[in-house]
Design brief:
The chain is mostly helical and 259 residues long. The protein contains 13 helices and no strands.
Length: 259
């Protein structure tokens, strides 16, 4: 599932740490610590208040799951800060309607696939939904340059696919067309919701159900506020939840065990 970018960074880290996995873990942890800073500015853009941005950054810093994933040598640890940066650039585009942010959105969306191939699909679907929800400017040269940057970032996948008789494309098509539909879609949806709730519980304190109540309460609060005029924070929050939703696999039997 990893793209070549993951291994390039991994090899550089091992080169400078003289193949010491202990030092490499520290480098990975330091990179992932940057997520707190990105989340601070992301929350400030969405909510507009510094105290809530600090709270979001603190929740990120003490998140059990982020700490767990942030030190892995063989998993998608680089995805964590990059996803936060993707949503920050997308939020700036939504708030300012400045088409120049398409350059950042397109390039980061393309780079995401190099750390987890599924992010390529999720990022594209999220961008399409954002265009629909917020009427983002697409009739500009920056939008088309952003598309070119996205394609350029994925050039290695495209070249590999062409040189190997469209191996990746055929594998995806085979997956979609060959596997049977789930006999019980509600069970598959329940599996996803269970994983999402578990992640929310672990976000601050493991096995503390109050986190779920706070999360639901915050969503309800944002919805009530949005009904009074400002719908952007609520829509942006739903957009981020949408990114985590494995909608492509919902109807496929036994395809969500790893989520």
């Amino acid at each position: 599932y990893h793209g070549v970018g993951y291994y390039y960074i991994l090899s550089a880290v091992y080169f400078f740490t003289q193949s010491d996995p202990g030092k490499a873990i520290l480098v990975f942890a330091a990179i992932n610590a940057l997520t707190c800073i990105i989340v601070f500015f992301l929350a400030k853009e969405i909510i507009g208040k510094t105290r809530y941005a600090l709270l979001a950054a603190l929740m990120t810093a003490f998140s059990f799951d982020i700490i767990l994933y942030g030190r892995w040598l063989s998993n998608v640890s680089f995805s964590i800060p990059l996803i936060a940066l993707f949503f920050y650039s997308l939020t700036k585009l939504v708030k300012t309607k400045n088409p120049s942010y398409w350059l950042l959105v397109g390039s980061i969306a393309g780079l995401l696939s190099h750390f987890e191939l599924l992010h390529l699909l999720f990022a594209v679907c999220t961008i399409v939904l954002a265009i629909k929800l917020f009427a983002l400017p697409i009739k500009s040269k920056q939008f088309f340059i952003g598309i070119m940057l996205f394609i350029l970032a994925n050039a290695s996948f495209i070249i590999f696919d062409i040189r190997h008789d469209f191996l990746v494309t055929n594998s995806i098509l085979h997956y979609i067309t060959s596997q049977p539909l789930s006999e019980n879609p509600t069970e598959v949806i329940g599996m996803y919701l269970n994983g999402l709730i578990t992640t929310m519980v672990n976000a601050l304190f493991p096995s503390n159900g109050i986190v779920i109540l706070l999360f639901i309460a915050s969503l309800l609060f944002m919805y009530v506020v949005s009904k009074k005029g400002n719908t952007q924070p609520f829509k942006l929050t739903l957009l981020m939840i949408f990114f985590s939703f494995p909608y492509i696999f919902l109807l496929k039997y036994g395809s969500l065990e790893h989520f």
